[in-house]
Amino acid sequence: MKLSAIASILECEYDFKDIEINGMNALQDAEVNEVSFVANSKYIKDIQTTKAGAVIVPASLVEHIPNNCVALVVEDSYWSMAILSKYFAPPIENEELPGALIGEGSKISSKAEIANGSRIGKNCTILAHVYIGCEAVIGNNTIIYPNVTVYRDCHIGSDCIIHSNTAIGADGFGFATSAQGEHKKIYQNGNVVIGDDVEIGSNVSVDRAVFGSTRINKGVRIDNLVQIGHNCEIGEYSVFVAQSGSAGSTKLGRNVVVGGQSAFAGHLEIAPFSTFAARSGITKNITKSGLTFSGFPLMEHKLWLKLQVKIARLLK
Amino acid sequence: MKLSAIASILECEYDFKDIEINGMNALQDAEVNEVSFVANSKYIKDIQTTKAGAVIVPASLVEHIPNNCVALVVEDSYWSMAILSKYFAPPIENEELPGALIGEGSKISSKAEIANGSRIGKNCTILAHVYIGCEAVIGNNTIIYPNVTVYRDCHIGSDCIIHSNTAIGADGFGFATSAQGEHKKIYQNGNVVIGDDVEIGSNVSVDRAVFGSTRINKGVRIDNLVQIGHNCEIGEYSVFVAQSGSAGSTKLGRNVVVGGQSAFAGHLEIAPFSTFAARSGITKNITKSGLTFSGFPLMEHKLWLKLQVKIARLLK
Amino acid sequence: MKLSAIASILECEYDFKDIEINGMNALQDAEVNEVSFVANSKYIKDIQTTKAGAVIVPASLVEHIPNNCVALVVEDSYWSMAILSKYFAPPIENEELPGALIGEGSKISSKAEIANGSRIGKNCTILAHVYIGCEAVIGNNTIIYPNVTVYRDCHIGSDCIIHSNTAIGADGFGFATSAQGEHKKIYQNGNVVIGDDVEIGSNVSVDRAVFGSTRINKGVRIDNLVQIGHNCEIGEYSVFVAQSGSAGSTKLGRNVVVGGQSAFAGHLEIAPFSTFAARSGITKNITKSGLTFSGFPLMEHKLWLKLQVKIARLLK
Prior knowledge:
3 copies of one chain form a homotrimer. By secondary structure, chain A is mostly beta strands. Chain A has 2 domains: 3-88, MurE/MurF, N-terminal domain (Udp-n-acetylmuramoylalanyl-d-glutamate--2,6- Diaminopimelate Ligase, Chain: A, domain 1); 101-304, Hexapeptide repeat proteins (UDP N-Acetylglucosamine Acyltransferase, domain 1, 3 Solenoid), CATH 2.160.10.10. Chain A is 11% helix and 28% strand. In chain A, the strands form 6 sheets. An 11-stranded mixed beta sheet of chain A has the order 6-9-12-15-20-23-26-29-32-34-35. The longest helix of chain A has 13 residues, at 301-313. Chains B and C meet through β16 and α4 of B and α4 of C.
């Protein structure tokens, strides 16, 4: 898509040399043929160092745009980004893609739907009513139980087990909201990448990234009814117990243990080997590894135990 | 169904002029050809003004029944209502209905099941393993991802997106319990009505109403793993973050924001533009709009922040 | 499988009379032709009384193994048990089994998958995109809504209703973890047994047992998005409100009421007729029946109400 066409969609002034743009991305990840956006002065540093070919930007931040980058000046850059995201959304299915490639020894139920353009490895078992979207990739020896949905473009490693009624790669929860309170969808054009030896329970939701990938790394264990928001990264061998979850863009180190019904706010960084007791509510970064936490607000587990004794004393 | 037949099912005395009854409804919504019920003296005012043709009532409340309404006097009116509800439950599927009507430009997977008597608008995309129940109605341009179930009689508007493994219109959680602790199902003969431009995430449960409709109004955004109980009404442009929920019959104004893992008790009224932080527990009506709340018990967010400081001081 | 082969898999010394072993089981449930394991000195009593033909045991506990039982001495008995569990896992499907038996009057959608070796009773309704695994057994008059998965070997009683997108019998959340933090799956070779007159909502996860059965007894009512861990037993007529759950091996008496978003820790015993308010966190046994509880930490509901008043006073 031409940058001039984008300027026209966003109703921006157009007085720059035209280039081809083939995607949208975050400031720090964007390449020269991508367009990015900024809505908040918190990210001034990221504007200054971006490699994006163009940035959607409000007038108040335009001075920070680097010389080699086109500023697309709009009133509400988040709303404009939402409008533009639709133009980069690929079709849900694409009949022109070649038929799915199925590896040797894989058993695919005749009642599964394997979309064109997908690739399944060797010795997989794909049961009835599974949906594998177009251009999805599944490794070897992976078992996918009935009624699982793997959305387009998502990758699942080898030796994985995905239990029934789980959704891998549904859209992340992203929208812009106008001053009048109306919402505009931000198309989630990223994907989900799941490493090898991962087991995911039933009725789990792992959302696709808005840009880039939501990542579930090697050896992770996810129990039932867990929510993994868009653009999270779950470190190797981490464990999510049932009904826990994470908002978007939170990154966990390896071997983090997340107790039942616990939840992370978005955009956090969690040190490896952290343990969270059941129903923890984590709203801040954890920088020191190997500790155990509880409660909401969160505190070290031993402090939480003490605090409960103090609170119980209020009754006396 | 004749009122005399109903009296016979409920083992009531029968000494009134017979009429045709074609449904059950709440006291305040019932019409002359419907039967209602009352189990609790809280609702005396609603008895006095009901237009129902007949009311199932315990002897202790029979004096409040208006003159033009037949009293069906029973021992346990809630239990009797549960018994009767089964007789008004339509069949799950009905092969005698005409084949589904599919609008121009809609793509329906051959692996979807579109029951007889349903109607799908124009330019919809219905993916594999979707189930659309009989007499369900879908608007135009709506996308329904794999493994979604839309139960019979439910309506979904135009320009909606329903993500995988979501259930629209399963039975609300309703039953009567005997003195011995046994449960009797209350058949949920209402439906779900979803407005235009609604997006619902994966693994969401929106229950059908016992009578009337559960309503998700225009522009609402629902994240993954959310529970919407029977007979709720979710106001325009409201937002439910992942793993939140509402018990039955709660009504939200427009642009209410419900944080992750928050929940509403049943039968509440929530003012528009209310915001609830993650894990709020809302058990009372909110009458003033535009405020932000936290905690369980719920309080204004700024108070909750203060309180956490006070609680932390107990440790000193 | 020969015990000598098991010793070889686990790299144990082999100096005993060989016997045929046909399964794994818990110490207290194992029969003479089964192998069990122990990892913890808490269970010394259970070792001494086990009827197991062999027990996987660390050197530190080998002295407690009874005379008629073979000790399979390993370094990490939990890890070894995980390794062995895979050898007793039956195939997911088995085409050599006879075709499913369908009782008179049952309506099975042509888009449902009913695996070989399963048995469906009379007058059942099985809708599209349902999966009934091999050797599963369904009673009479049971309704299974679209996109439900019933895994192999699971039993569902008569007069049950299972709502859409629910998973019955997915693997319990079981694995051993090495000192390096790697996980090894413990194959869940038990099943789920659901009694008569049970209703289960949409998007529910009921996990199969590691050994033996997860049991949902007669008359239970389970709302949407509920988690029932492996080896739980839910007493007759108990009620789980939406988004509540239980970790593994917890046993509830009859008519326990579990409020929305409440959860039980594992391995608890809960007295009959207990009631838990919404969002209760239950981490200890409840021995006295008929009481109402709230909070996390849990306390009697009337105490919890008092405590909230005291806590609110901190703000003054």
